[in-house]
């Protein structure tokens, strides 16, 4: 079976759940091979958990300054891995960084690029969401090795224990002049909630929440469900909630098991970031709100009455 290269998203100690999803997707096309970019020793630390999720080999692209640059080391590493293996495809997560890596890699390899993949099959046919979610299309790459950016949450992570060999990739020295260097890192305020793109439940508030204080109802419901909090752009622009929680075309893309939209109308740009959620529940006081046309479950009512009832119900279980 040919290798399918998967770019590993990690914090140096732990592998991000989205990577396990990529490994599950890669197994449909061949043998998943993990590409770890990081400081020396990272691949060895991550190998066991990658092997438990089906990575048959781990390509280590390590250097002392790999973590100081934005996407360049990952692009270099994947290019090297592609040139040194007969890989069938490259999969990355369709995060902000992942999309940039995928675009740059495809340009370097003169290869076809498919973004926002939500499904793929063994022949390389990919289902993708295009034009901000207006269409779902099936595509395949006709030139070069397919570079595929997969939406986080589109695949289920699967345990599939295998033996993974480790192989070193000789990462070329990074030319600082040609790369964006990270000068400082500021951690987002830590909390007990799961990350927005990793969560199995996301509860989002929109302009209907009517203020920063109103987001307390959103947070309480999210906490009762063990979920993450999201926001529409209108809520973020109005200063109700911080920007890093924005869901949509110009925010984060989420695909949880359950997405709850509170006081969100359902503009196409918002739908672009959440419409692949497994189940969508919308609460809106306007029966004509477009989100109710997409939602699996719609409640026409005041969110300040409906959401606390849901929270109490969940807390009682
Ligand atoms: P509104 O459209 O104002 O809807 C508020 C809803 O709340 C209404 O349906 C109303 O009936 C309901 N409501 C009010 N009070 C209550 C109540 N008490 N109980 C229940 N329901 C109530 N938007 C995004 O979200 N994400 C993006 O990434 C994004 N990117 C964009 C990119 C571009 C280039 C552009 C042009 C726009 C983008 N937008 C994005 C903005 C988008 O077009 C909408 O303006 C935005 O999504 C609207 O947010 P909203 O649904 O919260 O507000």
Automatic annotation (TrEMBL):
InterPro entries named in the record: DHS-like_NAD/FAD-binding_dom (IPR029035), ETF_a/b_N (IPR014730), ETF_a/FixB (IPR001308), ETF_asu_C (IPR014731), ETF_asu_C_CS (IPR018206), Rossmann-like_a/b/a_fold (IPR014729)
Keyword rRNA processing found: no
Lyase as UniProt keyword: no
Keyword annotations: Electron transport, FAD, Flavoprotein, Transport
Cofactors demanded by this protein: FAD
Pfam hit, one: ETF
Domain Electron transfer flavoprotein alpha/beta-subunit N-terminal: 4-186
PROSITE patterns, sorted: ETF_ALPHA (PS00696)
Gene3D superfamilies with a match to the protein in the record: HUPs, TPP-binding domain
Main function: The electron transfer flavoprotein serves as a specific electron acceptor for other dehydrogenases. It transfers the electrons to the main respiratory chain via ETF-ubiquinone oxidoreductase (ETF dehydrogenase).
Family: Belongs to the ETF alpha-subunit/FixB family.
Oligomer status and interactors: Heterodimer of an alpha and a beta subunit.
PANTHER family given in the database record: ELECTRON TRANSFER FLAVOPROTEIN ALPHA (PTHR43153), ELECTRON TRANSFER FLAVOPROTEIN SUBUNIT ALPHA, MITOCHONDRIAL (PTHR43153:SF1)
Name of protein: Electron transfer flavoprotein subunit alpha/FixB family protein
Classification lineage: Bacteria, Bacillati, Actinomycetota, Actinomycetes, Kitasatosporales
């Amino acid at each position: 079976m040919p290798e399918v290269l998967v770019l590993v998203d990690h914090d140096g100690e732990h592998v991000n759940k989205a990577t396990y999803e990529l490994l599950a997707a890669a197994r449909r096309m061949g043998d998943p091979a993990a590409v770890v970019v990081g400081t020396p020793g990272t691949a060895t630390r991550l190998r066991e958990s990658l092997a438990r999720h089906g990575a048959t080999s781990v390509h280590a692209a390590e250097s002392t300054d790999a973590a100081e640059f934005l996407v360049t080391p990952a692009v270099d590493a994947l290019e090297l891995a592609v040139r040194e293996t007969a890989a069938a495809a490259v999969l990355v997560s369709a995060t902000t960084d992942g999309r940039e890596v995928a675009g740059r890699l495809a340009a370097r390899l003169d290869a076809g690029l498919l973004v926002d993949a939500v499904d793929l099959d063994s022949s390389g046919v990919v289902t993708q969401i295009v034009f901000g979610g207006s269409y779902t299309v099936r595509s395949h790459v006709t030139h070069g090795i397919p570079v595929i950016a997969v939406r986080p949450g589109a695949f289920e992570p699967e345990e599939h224990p295998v033996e993974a060999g480790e192989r070193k990739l000789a990462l070329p020295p990074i030319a600082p002049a040609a790369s964006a260097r990270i000068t400082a890192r500021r951690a987002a305020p830590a909390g007990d909630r799961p990350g927005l793109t990793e969560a199995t439940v996301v509860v989002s508030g929109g302009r209907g929440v009517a203020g920063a204080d109103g987001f307390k109802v959103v947070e309480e419901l999210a906490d009762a469900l063990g979920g993450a909090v999201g926001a529409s752009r209108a809520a973020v622009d109005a200063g109700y909630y911080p920007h890093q929680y924005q869901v949509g075309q110009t925010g984060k893309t989420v695909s949880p098991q359950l997405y709850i939209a509170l006081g969100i109308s359902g503009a196409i740009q918002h739908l672009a970031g959440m419409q692949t959620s497994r189940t969508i529940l919308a609460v809106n006081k306007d029966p004509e709100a477009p989100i109710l046309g997409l939602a699996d479950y719609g409640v026409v009512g005041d969110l300040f009455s409906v959401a606390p009832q849901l929270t109490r119900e969940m807390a009682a279980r």
